[in-house]
Amino acid sequence: MLTALKPQPADKILQLIQMFREDPRDGKIDLGVGVYKDPTGLTPVMRAVKAAEKRLWETETTKTYTGLAGEPAYNAAMVELILAGAVAADRVASVATPGGTGAVRQALELIRMAAPGATVWISNPTWPNHLTIVKYLGIPMQEYRYFDAATGAVDFDGMMADLAQVKAGDVVLLHGCCHNPTGANPNPVQWLAICEAIAKAGAVPLIDLAYQGFGDGLEMDAAATRLLASKLPEVLIAASCSKNFGIYRERTGILIAIGEASGRVVTQGNLNFLNRQNFSFPPDHGARLVTMILDDEALCADWKAELEEVRLNMLTLRQLLAEALRAETGSDRFGFVAEHRGMFSRLGLTPEQVEKLRTDHAVYMVGDSRLNIAGLNRTTVPVLARAVADVLRG
Ligand code: PLP
Ligand code: TYF
């Protein structure tokens, strides 16, 4: 049986981790996988997470199964963090999931159950796992234009023209903030137009919210999600705690389904059913830490302060990099780096130039020229800018 299996294509982002590890050169720079790194290159455990873990160890009395939907207190705390009362509680169903990826996967399975023929519209480009999961589930898919490579901004006209083709009952997958891989995001006025286009089409948004707190702050980063949730009859939200709590390997996420209050019990039952079919109970450790932090005033304040440090560090690096690129290349073409938000920017280099960065300069970024801003520090910003200027000269 196993001999019938065909090799699967590797995840190009995860492949870079291995390539970087095997590179013996001193001074190599890892701008690949989307993991936050502090100025010393470490991905720290956040202070509030450490404190919650200690408290959990001291107070936890059982490890018996949690509920199929996870611990109700986790779901309540996350719904509050994301929606802040933007929709009535009796319209909201939710399940804890293994990470944001688990939430995306469950959302797409729910869509396939509820609307088997519906097309899922995906931004071009998007996080590669969106494409592979949709394809794996056999869901019809279309792309909408998103990124203007010439300006590094959202191709808003292209996006709106494509969203005008969306049919009633289709699903539009959106990045709630900090678009991966481009770093370009709609402004609040554009979000309103996107919301209106989805309403006019009679479509359902699926919002992937993996970076709340990494862009313009916890509240601003949730603003588009809250807008869509408050204006549209049905909204799905797949959120991750991996980045903003720095608990990547704990696999902590949530799927939120908003609809008519009269359908909430059945929707919740279907979410629970999907959890049971796929893994029964969701992981609890990370969810418990998140709950303890969000429900405790002091821990929550400390978490918010540290998250803000993380966000501002990335913003400073963006500014420094935009300036260094201007100085080294003598052009403004990379000014968008300072406008982008989140961990990533797509520089608009060719695959050959990205390859040359790796071979000649030991700089690792994803083949589409996406770089992880948090992989930089004050010392490596000028090194990267010089390397980019060098590969542009050919
Ligand atoms: N969605 C997007 C756009 C992402 O970039 C990520 C990656 O971090 C995720 C979802 C899910 O992350 P995780 O499954 O690690 O929570
Ligand atoms: O895009 C990234 O780098 C992050 C991390 O299969 C990631 O979202 C990358 C690949 C993957 C899962 C997570």
From TrEMBL:
Residues 28-387 form the Aminotransferase class I/classII large domain. The keyword Transferase applies. InterPro entries: Aminotransferase_I/II_large, Asp_trans, PyrdxlP-dep_Trfase, PyrdxlP-dep_Trfase_major, PyrdxlP-dep_Trfase_small. Its cofactor is pyridoxal 5'-phosphate. Keywords: Aminotransferase, Pyridoxal phosphate, Transferase. It comes from the Bacteria. GO terms for cellular component: cytosol. GO terms for molecular function: identical protein binding; L-aspartate:2-oxoglutarate aminotransferase activity; L-tyrosine-2-oxoglutarate transaminase activity; pyridoxal phosphate binding. Pfam families: Aminotran_1_2. One of its GO terms (biological process) is L-phenylalanine biosynthetic process from chorismate via phenylpyruvate. SUPFAM superfamilies: PLP-dependent transferases. NCBIfam families: PRK09257.1. Belongs to the class-I pyridoxal-phosphate-dependent aminotransferase family. Homodimer. This is Aromatic amino acid aminotransferase. It comes from Cereibacter ovatus.
